[in-house]
# Entry
Amino acid sequence: MDVAALPPLRETIARHGLDARKRFGQHFLLDLNLTRRIARAAQPLDQGTVIEIGPGPGGLTRALLLEGAAKIVAIEVDPRALGALVELQAASDGHLQVIEADALTIDPASLGPAPRRIVANLPYNISTPLLVRWLQQADAIADMVLMFQKEVVDRLVAQPRTKEYGRLSVLAQHVCEIRRLFDIPASAFVPPPKVTSSVARLTPHRAEQRLADLAPLERVTAAAFGQRRKMLRGSLGGLFSDPVAVLEGLGLSPTARAEELAVADFVRLAEVLTK
# Structure
């Protein structure tokens, strides 16, 4: 593989006119030490398929190749980046496939053999919708190593009775074991965003440990946290004809608020809704 012999990433960006675009939520991470640290956090890479979302000029892609990824499928929506990625593909000795597409329309199960790992410096503007979509498709994913704004990771790992705890906390923690790995300062990016970024690893629980259909849990959490200052007997009124009876039947206080319930409590409410 001749990836190490490629010109520096800054030179590639300049040659292809790849200034970061706000509409794509782009902030390029150029430090190979940092991108290789992310790639190492996603090991093992030598089996199955690594799915990278929004590779841009290919900084993280290079790191994944250098860390031994057997097969990478890179999904890029910005047509300007394709020239740089095609050059990287040519140097990858057949280990990289580039697809021009919107990641929100892609089914991970269609992209290559298992185990499938999603590794990405996610575009800030679609990071949460992408994650919720992948939580719905967890059967097809072995794990995910993802970079978000730090405040998103704060929400992912938040515990009940904290201001960060919300709908995303419940959905993600029900589906996955979540580990915050490390932070990356804004100064590491071009252009620097206004916030610190954090890398997290999300590993789906076994299928028998999670709901087969997330839709009821999404409905319950949307209702409860959509009016989070309301008592549950009020916020869940649109889902249950007698929310007080449902809550009391589960041993939950009708006067509690959404942030007081554990993830398991929301799961039990979703199971009642399913029935």
Strands lie at 28-29, 49-53, 72-76, 96-100, 116-121, 143-149, 176-184, 189-190, 197-204.
